[in-house]
Structures are given as structure tokens and as C-alpha cells.
């Protein structure tokens, strides 16, 4: 029996599973929340990296307590998935200089404009790196530190991403793999190498602060002895390369070969499909990321999904079951109530100064149930904007595997199927990114042990399974209704843009 631990450090919590690779059974599970820093100016979204490390230790401790002593010694590897793009600035001794600016921080729109100009305009940026500079990505956050906090910038010696920081916490090594690194916007994603042009636009010395790029089957290192002792593990547990949460979600939903499309309904909304070659969107809306299994992962990301539904749920003091019943009691289209869900600004389309808009309020739809439906529908229509763009780039979905917190809800899955116009199905293991971490750790361990022909796609084919009881087919009448709503949401978004800018300036 060999056990592999998968960890997903998301925006709101850290989740872990311990997988018995022989039987495919999950033998332990644990979770620990971590909060955003409150009281920051609008658009600034930050967390303390030390909180992620504390949550990770708590989760590892919790799982260790659920395993027998024998099972603990059979843990062979740990694979970490983490929210993408966050900038963890470390000094020469590896201490965190300031909190991490996150993927959902929109305070760096000005830095994006400046970097784009330095590289010769939007087209030149796409030619040189494959990705535009967007506020969510890491590069403008580093430039922001240089421009706004020069004293902190002078102390900078190591740039890490959230999951790299957790790898560093576990192993003591500065390490980066292609998948998560592709979300920095400092890489030429076509060549899977750092982009000298993007780096020089910020600071020519920055290259010294970036770890060399490693392939995703390599190990970040071995678990530090004091942690191995603390969790009761043996002294040779490897920590695999890990990756961004979407890259690891791809592995954990079996999206490791062409033809599979995954949608994640977490704090953010993402839709992605693994590709054997880079897929660069000439409009820069679909992100040309690398995967964390040696390929590429064209991906759409919207910033407003379960945060939106959670706000509505909190406002009306409902638990998830009550909210689901409320939504089930209303008609598709929420009797004319439509939400443009840009509560935190938006990445796709790129509207960093955006805000939420409830459109079509009247006496008949002024109710908690209609607000709840409008929240689920608005977030899903927002994601469908990108699904259509993916289709235009040749990635056509015949069915969509859904994962993340929102995918647990049957009534929301029906909205997903109706909006996307294809069947959706959830996974047997709903912590897809954590499962991806466990599988990548098993792959990395096998290669390290000399079983070099081991394929991640074979491991995934054996372990990953859809939950057929959740398969949901689109309803033709509802799908037609949502096509009209989609047009209306697109028009509403376009019409509001000048007003968002006026509001930001005012
Ligand atoms: N049954 C459910 N219906 C809708 N949302 C849910 C449900 N269960 C959990 N969530 C929400 O999903 C989010 C967590 O999803 P997850 O994919 O773990 O997010 P992240 O990785 O961004 O932290 C939370 O906002 C949580 O409240
Ligand atoms: O920025 C992106 C993808 O580009 C986000 O998907 C983050 O990776 C955060 O993920 P969740 O916390 O929502 O899982």
C-alpha cells in the first residue's frame, strides 16, 4: 500500500486528502479556513502566506490523526495545489516581506498599462509571452511593489507563488514548475522559459530572484525531517512539483488528454481543457497557461462565482439547502432579474474597475429567491462568455466536468447545463485539485524510483471517475431562454463600461 497526500490551498480554505493509490480509496480528509486581510482599500486583496502554511500544517496534522501508524509510514509523497498568481515576496533569509497580493487583486491596472507599453503594445506582448498583462497576474504585482513600496522591493530576493511558498515551507527549497509559473506573465509560454523581455520591463535584476523552471514530474524536494517527525511520516516523503489549482484540478478531473473540458465553480470560475500545443488567443481573453503535466491549459477565468452566491446567502441568512430550495422554486430567468456579477471587478472580460449591477428589478422579482437565482445565473452566464471564446479557438465541449464548491448543488448544475448547452457531470471526488495533487505526487514518486515509463494519464484513468448520478442534461426551452439572457448580459456589461470608469475616476 502506498499513500499520496494531495493538498489544495484555495482562496478561502485549504483542503487535503490522503489517497491509497492501490485501491483508489480516500483514507483521510481535512480542511482549514484562511481569511482575506480586511480593511484594505478597494481593489486590494491580500492574505498572509504564513496563514496558508499554518492551515497546511493543521490539515496535515488532521489527516495524520485519521491514519493508523502503519498507514502514516506508507505516505510516499505530497502534491500541493494553490490559488494561482499570488505574489509571495521573500527576503534573503526566506522571510515574508509583506502580505501576498492575490489573483483577485485589481489594484495594478496602471502597472499593466505601463508594462504593455514597455513591451511595445498589446500585440507585441502576446508575441513575446503569449499572455497579456492583466491585473490578476503576478508580473504587475511585482512592478507595483517596486513603484509603491520601494523599501520592501529593495529587500526582495525570492519571488514565489502561493503553492511554491507551501513547497518551500515543506522542503526549504525555492522551486517553480511550468504550470503555475505560466500565470506570472513573466514566461514565454510557447517556449516554457522565462521571458527576458517581460523580466527586463520590471527590473533586469529580477531574473536573479526567480527560481529556475522545472518540469512538472520533478520533485520540489523531500519533506523536512522535523515535519516528517511531527506528522509521523517516514523520512523520505517527497514533495512533488505541485501546480496552480486549475492545473491540478485538470489532473484531478481527468483532464489530461484532449477532449475533456472542466469547469470549476470556486471563489473564481474557470473553464479549461488540456492541449498538446500552446493555444494563444489573439484577443488575449483565454489565458495560454501551461499545464502541470507537461502540456498546455487554455483557460478562462472569471473572478465572481461563489463569492457572489455566498453574499446573497449571507444576506438572507440561509444555509445551502435553503438557498437551493429557494432557487428551485423560481423560474429560469428569475422573472426578469439579471445580475452582472462584477463584485470584485472582472478579469474576463477585462474590467478591473467593474462593479455588480442588478438589472430588471420589479415588484414580482424583488425576493430572496429571485436574488439567489439571479446570483447563480449571473455567475454562470459570466463563465459562458469564456466558453464561447474557447469554442472560437477550437476547444469545443461535448460535456463539461464540474468541480469546486458550487458544483455540489443540483439546482445550480441544472443552470450550468442549460447555460452551457451541454451535459454537465460532477466528479466522485469533489476535491478535484487535491486529488490532482495526490496523483501528481504518485507520478513524480514513480519516476524518481526509476519507473520512468509511468504516465500520469494512466494513473488518472485508473483513479479519477465521474459521478454518473450527477449527470445533468440541458433543457431545450431553458437553454433558449438563457441564450437571450446571455445577449442581454453581454449588452449590459458593454453599456456599463464607461460608467464603471466614470465611477472609478469620481
Ligand atoms: N453546496 C454548495 N452550494 C454552493 N456553494 C457552495 C456549496 N458548498 C460550498 N460552497 C461554496 O464554495 C466555495 C468553496 O469552493 P472551493 O472550490 O473550495 O473554493 P476555493 O478553492 O476558491 O477556496 C465557498 O464559497 C463555499 O461556500
Ligand atoms: O486566477 C485564477 C485563475 O487564473 C483563479 O482560478 C485562482 O487560481 C483562484 O482559484 P480558486 O481559489 O477560485 O480555486
Automatic annotation (TrEMBL):
Provide this UniProt record's keywords sorted from A to Z: ATP-binding, Carbohydrate metabolism, Kinase, Nucleotide-binding, Transferase, Xylose metabolism
Q: Which domain of life is it from?
A: Bacteria
Could you tell me which SUPFAM superfamilies the record lists for this protein?
Actin-like ATPase domain
Name the CDD domains for this protein.
Answer: ASKHA_NBD_FGGY_BaXK-like
Q: Per the database record, which ranges form the Carbohydrate kinase FGGY N-terminal domain?
A: 3-252
Q: What is its EC number?
A: 2.7.1.17
The chemistry this enzyme catalyses reads: D-xylulose + ATP = D-xylulose 5-phosphate + ADP + H(+)
Say if the entry is tagged with keyword ATP-binding.
yes
**Pfam families recorded:** FGGY_C, FGGY_N
What the protein does comes down to: Catalyzes the phosphorylation of D-xylulose to D-xylulose 5-phosphate.
Sorted alphabetically, which NCBIfam families does this protein's record hold? XylB (TIGR01312)
Q: What is this protein called?
A: Xylulose kinase
Which organism does this record belong to? Termitidicoccus mucosus
Q: Which gene produces this protein?
A: xylB
